[in-house]
Amino acid sequence: MIYPLEAGQGLDPWDDAQTIAGRLAQPGAELLVVLGAEAWCQRCKGMRPGFEALRAAHAPAHAVWLWLDLEDHAEFLGDFLPEDLPMLLRWQAGVCVQAAVLESINLATTPAVRSREVELPAAPPEIWAALTKKGWAGS
């Protein structure tokens, strides 16, 4: 079962645990997470609206796109601290397969996203596992 979202509506791991777990249980599921800190990172604050617009316009139904704030969502990160922000991490079938630092998001340009690939963390945060754990947040 795919759980559709209204255009412009983002997912939050606290409020949408069942929807997120359901999507990640689907074959071919993918998790794309941007780690940011809007309270003190000006690049993060400036890119968040672009991320949400891109997600609303282009996120495939089998994917979960989340923006996680370092302070508001710290329990998902464990001891992981990104070297630069905002950092994009992408999982496929529970395995972290990509890490990049976002440099810009602008839907009026091609490509819409400019990023700098970085080495995958030796111990990436266990975000996929946390979001799919049975009983997490009532899921």
What does this structure look like?
The protein is α+β, with helices and mostly antiparallel strands and 139 residues long. The chain has a single domain, classed as Glutaredoxin (3-Layer(aba) Sandwich), CATH 3.40.30. Helix content is 22%, strand content 26%. The chain has 3 helices and 5 strands, in the order αβαββββα. The chain has helices at 17-24, 42-58, 127-132; strands spanning 30-36, 63-69, 87-92, 95-105, 113-117. A 5-stranded mixed sheet has the order 2-1-3-4-5. The two termini are 15 Å apart. Mean pLDDT is 88; it is low at 1-8.
Q: Write down the CATH topology.
A: Glutaredoxin
How is the biggest beta sheet arranged?
5 strands, mixed
Task: Just name the CATH architecture.
Answer: 3-Layer(aba) Sandwich
In terms of structural class, how would the helical and strand content be classed?
alpha+beta
Name the CATH class. Answer: Alpha Beta
Rg calculated over all Cα atoms: 14 Å
Q: SSE string, helix = H, strand = E?
A: HEHEEEEH
Tally of alpha and pi helices: 3
- Oligomeric form: single chain
CATH superfamily: Glutaredoxin
Mean pLDDT across all residues, rounded?
88
Distance between the termini: 15 Å
Tell me the number of structural domains.
1
Q: Helix fraction?
A: 10-25%
Strand content: 25-35%
Low-confidence stretches: 1-8
With strands numbered from the N-terminus, the spatial order across the biggest sheet is 2-1-3-4-5
Number of strands: 5
Q: What characteristic shape results from the CA principal axes? A: globular
